[in-house]
Amino acid sequence: MRGKYVIAGIGHTQFGRLPGRGTVSMNVEACRNALADAGIDKSVVDALFVKVPTSKYQSMYGQTLAEAMWMQPKVGGVWDQGGATNISTISFACMAIDAGQCDVAIVCLADDPKTGTRQAYEKAWGDDGAYGWFSVAAGYGMTMQRHMAEYGTRPEQFGEIAVAVRNHGANNPHAALRVPLTIDKYMQSPFIIEPLKRDDICLVSDGAAAVVVMSETRARELGVKAPVRILGFGQGQTSYDVPYRPVLTETMAKASAATAFKMAGLAPKDIDVAQIYDCYTIAVMMTLEDYGFCRKGEGGKWVEGGRVAAGGEMPINTSGGLLSETGMPGLQLVMEGVRQMRGTSVNQVKDAATCVVSNQGGIMTTHSTLILGH
Length: 374
Prior knowledge:
Layout: E1 5-12, H1 23-38, E2 47-51, H2 61-68, E3 75-79, H3 85-98, E4 104-111, H4 119-122, H5 136-151, H6 155-170, H7 183-188, E5 191-193, E6 196-197, E7 207-215, H8 216-222, E8 228-237, H9 253-264, E9 273-275, H10 281-290, H11 299-302, H12 321-324, H13 331-342, E10 354-361, E11 366-373
Parallel strand pairs: 2-3, 2-4, 9-10
Antiparallel strand pairs: 1-7, 1-8, 4-7, 5-6, 8-11, 10-11
Helix pairs in contact: 6-10
């Protein structure tokens, strides 16, 4: 399947605080923009893959959205792997098309935790809530603490990630947060849950995004102007809750990446730019390690010296990621990967021909990997 399928179009809403907008309305806007970007009519779409809104669950949401879009898809519905859902549904779309079940698919998500409810992120976590285990951040804080204790990772090294991504977002006119960051400002940032500083943690944002998936052959038939080839994809699931994991500093992102790299026929050394799920800076560092860009425990040293910043050896999250562009989970990273392959990013990496994108959900629980290329 390597290179057989493409992302033909991308679209999104504004990001940030969008009062009065429901998730259906935002999804419709993003899908309309993705179809316009692909230069195709809604009538050719026969599949709709939707990430369930995290903030407020709604039964049969995929059908609700299809009705709002006046569509009768052959294949459709919602999927929930948290932030890993988006790349997973892109891969499901490719497999459904390959199996002859559909022809052209839209993959989309929308959520409104900024102006709606963020209860899903704030709740007591598991049976340990009685002992102070509250919020998703607590799990990431525990994991970050372990990485620092086990490998000697320093706060300044996490700061390298935050500074690079925030400064990329400062150049992006669509980013919800366009305030540059320095290491000094990062170090002065207050703790939210020690050792997590404010600038280690992603935004909370309203917004929607969508991509159009089809075969490369169909894209040529429809006259799509800038399709981007899908070279590989993979998944992995770290299914134990954080307190029960035998090792806190390794995840099934390793299996997800290995599957995608094997499908693409590539290795980490062949990647020009990366869009790494940055809900927390510790997630970025561990993903870079698990993906094989460096050895386990060496992520802190590896990101030093501006390596992950624009102009560095391996720029990451060049539109600002979850730390700056939007806290909306994951699909914005895919869209930026597409822009990098098209040569249209606001922080374009010169001669970029390959891009790896990571998605994850829960507390580094579900993992999806996508590799894009020319």
